[in-house]
Amino acid sequence: MAALIPFAAGSVAISLGAFYWFKKSKQHTYPFDIYTNKQSFVVDPSTGIRVSPPGVATDAYLDVNTVYDVFERGLKLAANLPCLGQRSTASEPYEWKTYEQVKKMIDTLSVKLVSLLETEVRMIGIQARNCLQWLLVELACVASGLTIVPFYETYGEQALRHILDETRIEVMFCESPKQAKHLLQMYPSKLRHIIVFKQGDELEPLINGDSPTVHLHSLQTLLSSEASSCMGTKVPSPDDVFMICYTSGSTGLPKGVLIKHKEFIHTMKAFCHRLEDPIFTKNPVHLSYLPLAHILEQHASLITLNHGGRIGFLTSDFSGLLGDLKDVQPIYFFAVPRVLSRIYSTVLQRLSSIPFGEKMLQYAVALKNKDQQQGYYDNSGFLDFIFFRKIRSATGGRIKAILSGGAPLPDDVLRFTRAAFGCPVVIAYGLTETDGCISLSYLGDGSTGHVGALLPGVMAKLVDVPALNLSVSVDGIGEIRVKGPNCSDGYFNDVLHTKELFDSEGWMCTGDLGTWTEAGALKIVGRCKLAFKLAQGEYVSPDKVEAVYQLSRLVNQAYVDGNSLYAFAIAIIVPNMNELRRYLSKCAEENGGGDESVSLLSDWETMSDDELCSSVPVREAVLRSLNHLGRVHDLKGFELAKSIYLTNSPFTTENELLTGSMKLCRFNLRRHFESVINELYDNPPIL
């Protein structure tokens, strides 16, 4: 037996060595890893103008100059392969149309669209959930040189009427007879045709209705009838307007951003250049679930078509996202922070009842992040099997890269997402006015706390913000201003706001506060217009505080506000009532859990949700929990709310407290909760 010990030890050593070699062989490098420690450099010391390496992108798509060319390129690559797919219910398999089949429908519809137009207005409106028909209409429009005007499905009546009046479009596509009926009731004088995606018994009476000026059609009828000729259609030029992309309206009425083909294509090519990896170029698969009215989803879908990939569409609503991910099995995942934060919060919630569950998760995340920073994306470890395997399986099991944009992504969520999916997670920053992207992190950059390097061709600088008492030379923080071929010319039919968008030297004013990291990456600090001043002179960026509060399991939604007459900020929270009751139960079991306010509350179990929300001890307990979380995430004392209001009524698009892109509509929130805010300030802070 003793003689076998050296042999056994040697076998173990050889096995460990083999395992190490095997793992080492899976090390992955990306083309721009060499730039992660020098992500931008100053080209003009007097103004601080920066660009990022490589400053100019090699053009791998010389034949692509318009969105029309994007589909044509995909057609050449994958004529008989799946292009667009959808299903009616989650129990059915996806049905796919090939590129050739989609091309035939595009050719028919593009001619029909031109024949419907009665004036010089060459704009087509689309309001529907993401579906095959949505993208088909878009491609038919670009094939005939028409401009699309996407509408968020969640736009309120005021925003919808504003856009219809401003654009004076004649032809409007919508999803259902119900939407068509709504448009008929409020249509402006110029609307002439409403085309409905879905067939149904409700549609026939509308088509045969008594509207003297508006004609209703089903999309199926248009596609099934013969196209007479191609007269009136024209292939777009790079200088033509591809889309008028209306903003979500978080600060007032939506503004229509003019996006030309050349601007969109430049940004798309820059995306493809920065994301230069077979993940994005070899048989890509994408699930389209973010609204196609949002510029980020436009890029995700058209990048897929550019490489001959296939796009599956969300079956019903967001609640079915996981089921669709599992069936479509996307290769990459374009996400907004609220989606990734929800996955993170769900995992934390399930681990909360397991002793040391959260500690073990943190250890597993840290371990995987460390390996990933060295280029190892191994998903076979024991801790990975325990914590992350089910997440990957539930989302299709094939995601090899994730892109997050549209809002700040908390560092904790970013680190967790990288570990859970075992793949690079890149961060995009931009505005609708910059075609969705100003900067994008490198695939191999595993650091956090920034939004990456500037896109090729983009220049950026920081300027002083006197209104916030910010000096770039002193504070290292300023408003981000940009120039580049991705920048829009301005807003449709809106000279005043277009003038405000640019400074006297032609730099686009983003309205965002930024700084540069030691490695030269761009970091977003807050919004100029959102930041409010407290009585003692400190400035608070509410979106930064809200992002931290949203990490709490107690919180469904958070809104932070302030007033320059007072020395503290306040928070209005929509709590997760189930989690709040669990928290109160836990505190009661632990004799208040160290929270005096909860220990004094003996009858919480008999209270209704509304009574809990109005209870001062409960409000104190929630605020203590949130501010503890804030300190863990390095919020300063003056940034933490000192008073709080809990409401059981969620912020929604229906009550116009959320925008069409699901952002807080701050103007409406402030007006809606005016009396609440005044009362919070009329009374002493509760903490």
TrEMBL record:
Record flagged with keyword Lipid metabolism: yes
InterPro entries: AMP-binding_CS, AMP-dep_synth/lig_dom, ANL_N_sf
Leading EC class: ligase
GO molecular function: long-chain fatty acid-CoA ligase activity
Matches recorded under Gene3D superfamilies: N-terminal domain of ligase-like
GO CC terms: endoplasmic reticulum; membrane
AMP-dependent synthetase/ligase domain: residues covered: 92-492
PROSITE patterns (alphabetical): AMP_BINDING (PS00455)
Top-level taxonomic group: Eukaryota
Enzyme Commission code: 6.2.1.3
Pfam families per record: AMP-binding
Key words, A-Z: Fatty acid metabolism, Ligase, Lipid metabolism
UniProt-recorded name of the protein: long-chain-fatty-acid--CoA ligase
Taxonomy of the source species: Eukaryota, Metazoa, Spiralia, Lophotrochozoa, Platyhelminthes
